[in-house]
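Deliverable D2.4 — example input (structure tokens):
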């Protein structure tokens, strides 16, 4: 048994976009991985200046001590490219707790940029018994919000469908981040 991924569900683009199509990005975690966090730079009272995703490998682990007991573990492995090339701002980093993956985002944006973002993080497990296992959300939490403090920003929110995890960070950026969104894929059990 293992974990597989199928299908794609995308949020909207929160914030703005560049008129130059070369500024669009669509950064996917490698196969078998999901988003586990974000890092970048923040300019207070203005915008989130830069952003890059952090990925982790999702795997099904069988308990050595107890037969037919499985957990879904997430091992951090790397980062996606940083988007927003101007090196101004204060660094930030937000990440899901151990063995959790990103399953949604919320925050605030203007027509021109992203003002705040927070991650919805979920821990998945296997429920059931031998021969009838099913994926289940064990716990959900939220990271603290990276917030530039822009009072004119409007709220946004997106949650992946049930049993789906975020594995793509997309948006628009050049010297600064204009807009951002996520794409999700459904996690499933792969019986071998």
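Example output (designed residues):
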């Amino acid at each position: 048994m293992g974990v597989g991924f199928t299908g794609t569900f995308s949020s909207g683009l929160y914030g703005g976009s560049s008129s130059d199509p070369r500024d669009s990005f669509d950064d996917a975690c490698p196969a078998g991985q999901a988003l586990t966090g974000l890092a970048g730079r923040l300019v207070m009272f203005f915008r989130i200046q830069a952003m890059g995703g952090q990925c982790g490998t999702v795997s099904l682990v069988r308990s050595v001590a107890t037969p037919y007991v499985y957990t879904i573990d997430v091992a951090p492995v790397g980062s996606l490219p940083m988007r927003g090339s101007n090196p101004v701002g204060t660094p930030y980093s937000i990440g899901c707790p151990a063995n959790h993956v990103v399953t949604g985002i919320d925050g605030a944006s203007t027509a021109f940029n992203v003002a705040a973002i927070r991650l919805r993080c979920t821990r998945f497990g296997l429920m059931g018994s031998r021969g009838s296992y099913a994926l289940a959300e064990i716990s959900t939490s939220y990271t603290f919000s990276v917030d530039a403090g822009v009072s004119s920003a409007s709220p946004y929110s997106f949650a992946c469908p049930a049993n789906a995890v975020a594995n793509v960070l997309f948006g628009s950026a050049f010297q600064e981040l204009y807009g951002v969104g996520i794409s999700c894929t459904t996690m499933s059990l792969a019986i071998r």
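Residues 100 and 123 are 4 Å apart (CA to CA).
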